Amino acid sequence: MPILSPYRSLPAEKRISLLMSAMSANREARALYTARLLSRGGGFRAVTINAWPAEKLAREIVRMKAEQPQDELDLLHLLYVQLEPMIQIDFLDTAGVPHEKGVMPEDLQPPFVGADKVKLAAAKVLEQHGEDGARYLHTLARYSAAGWPGIVEVAEKLNT
Fold first, then answer.
1. Where are the alpha helices (DSSP H) in 78-114?
2. What is the pTM of this model?
3. Residue 96 — φ and ψ, nearest 5°?
4. Residue 150 bridge partners (DSSP)
5. In Å, how far are 19, 61, 104 from 42, measured between CA atoms?
6. Dmax of the chain from CA atoms?
7. Which residues, in sequence order, are CB contacts of 28 under 8 Å at separation 6+?
8. Which of 88, 101, 105, 108 is the most buried (most CB within 10 A)?
9. Dihedral (CA of 7, 144, 83, 21) sign
């Protein structure tokens, strides 16, 4: 069985909540996700979907798996940087990477630290955050491996 993306490994209710947060924070997000849903077919018209409350739209998007890979990355970023930054804060603090409440400086260039600090920070995240920490590490390995030397190997060990 293939390994789910970090986003798809989230419980459905969490994915629905993330989509609702994205749509409430950004008007264009609702239009984007409506377009994603329409592209999947199913007989709905845009005027019908546009009348739905955000929760119904989010539930249908998750049910139809209408999110695309870039959407998944954007939603994980929303989760780990804006909504629930503690995992990222713990990781960055332990690795010794400068940040402001989990947000790294824009001018910081990869790799951000060496592999030894990545392993240390990964161990701390796993210890403090369990399964959610493991999902965070898989997210880094999938989307930001160049910035975190050794993160791919850490994530691979979590799969065994």
1. 86-95
2. 0.93
3. 80, 30
4. none
5. 20, 12, 41
6. 54
7. none
8. 88
9. negative
Residue 27's SS3 state is: helix
Both structure tokens of 4: 């789910």
Please give the full DSSP string across 39-81, using - where no structure is assigned: HT-SS--HHHHHTS-HHHHHHHHHHHT---HHHHHHHHHIIII
Q: Is the Cβ–Cβ distance between 5 and 68 less than 8 Å?
A: no
Distance from CA of residue 84 to its chain's centroid?
11
Q: Exposed (0-12), middle (13-18) or buried (19+): which is 23, by Cβ within 10 Å?
A: buried
Specify the amino acid at residue 52. Answer: W
What SS3 state is found at 100? strand
Backbone angles phi, psi at 41, to 5 degrees: 80, -160
Q: What is the pLDDT, as a whole number, of residue 3?
A: 66
Q: Which of 97, 160, 101, 104 is nearest to 124 (CA)?
A: 97
Q: Which of 115, 117, 92, 114 is nearest to 102 (CA)?
A: 92
Give the amino acid at 3.
I
Task: Write the pLDDT tens digit of every residue in 27-48.
Answer: 899 999 999 999 887 788 889 9
According to DSSP, residue 146 is labeled G
